[in-house]
Every structure is written in structure tokens, then in C-alpha cells.
């Protein structure tokens, strides 16, 4: 089976760790590519390349501000990822419930010794 292009959807786009780093920085607000590149210790062309991928899948938006382009998070693009991850909520809740029961049983056993 052929591998999907990295720009095809949000899942593929965020598989790249540096793109996740960019998204994490953009949670705090809009920033120019120069700030993002400096913060992440990468070249501006590399940061621009990652921003292009993130824009193509709808995770980042850009707007002009004077001579700069400001990039901001478009969280609507994360909806498919959020919905997919949310499908595991029941699993985690049940796991934490089992862990809580185990810890309570362990405490009672130790108090009884």
C-alpha cells in the first residue's frame, strides 16, 4: 500500500514533531514565521515549509499585518483528531477506575497488616 502524502489530512500533518511544536506555540496567539523559527531553532525556510503544510490541511491560518504575515492556530482543523482521540475516553476512564480500585484495595490490605 502506498504511503499517504503528508499534506493529505491533519493526522499526517501532525505526525511531524516540529509541526506539533509550531501548533503548540500558536496556541498562545498569532506569530510571524521569524519568531516561530527562532523559538524552535530552525531556519525560516524550514518553518515556512511546515507552516505551508499546516495551512493546506486547515490547522493554521495566515493574515497580512504590515510587512509581516502572522500565523495563527485554526483549531477547527483539529476536530477530526479530537473526535478520534475522544473515542478512547471510555478506555482511559475504565483504566483509571481499575487503577483506583487497585490502590484502594492495596491501602486496605496494608492497613490490615
TrEMBL record:
SUPFAM superfamilies hit by this protein: Winged helix' DNA-binding domain
SMART domains documented for this protein: HTH_ARSR
Pfam families, alphabetized: HTH_5
Record-linked CDD domains: HTH_ARSR
Domain HTH arsR-type: 1-93
PANTHER family for the chain: SLL0088 PROTEIN (PTHR38600:SF2), TRANSCRIPTIONAL REGULATORY PROTEIN (PTHR38600)
NCBIfam families: HTH_metalloreg (NF033788)
Name listed for the protein in its UniProt record: Transcriptional regulator, ArsR family protein
Amino acid at each position: 500500500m502506498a504511503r499517504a502524502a503528508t499534506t493529505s489530512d491533519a493526522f499526517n500533518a501532525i505526525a511531524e514533531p516540529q509541526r506539533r511544536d509550531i501548533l503548540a506555540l500558536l496556541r498562545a496567539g498569532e506569530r510571524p514565521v521569524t519568531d516561530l523559527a527562532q523559538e524552535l531553532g530552525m531556519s525560516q525556510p524550514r518553518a515556512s515549509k511546515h507552516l505551508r503544510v499546516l495551512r493546506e490541511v486547515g490547522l493554521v491560518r495566515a493574515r497580512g499585518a504590515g510587512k509581516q504575515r502572522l500565523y495563527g492556530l485554526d483549531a477547527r482543523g483539529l476536530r477530526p483528531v479530537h473526535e478520534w482521540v475522544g473515542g478512547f475516553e471510555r478506555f482511559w476512564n475504565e483504566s483509571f477506575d481499575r487503577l483506583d480500585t487497585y490502590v484502594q484495595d492495596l491501602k486496605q490490605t496494608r492497613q490490615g497488616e
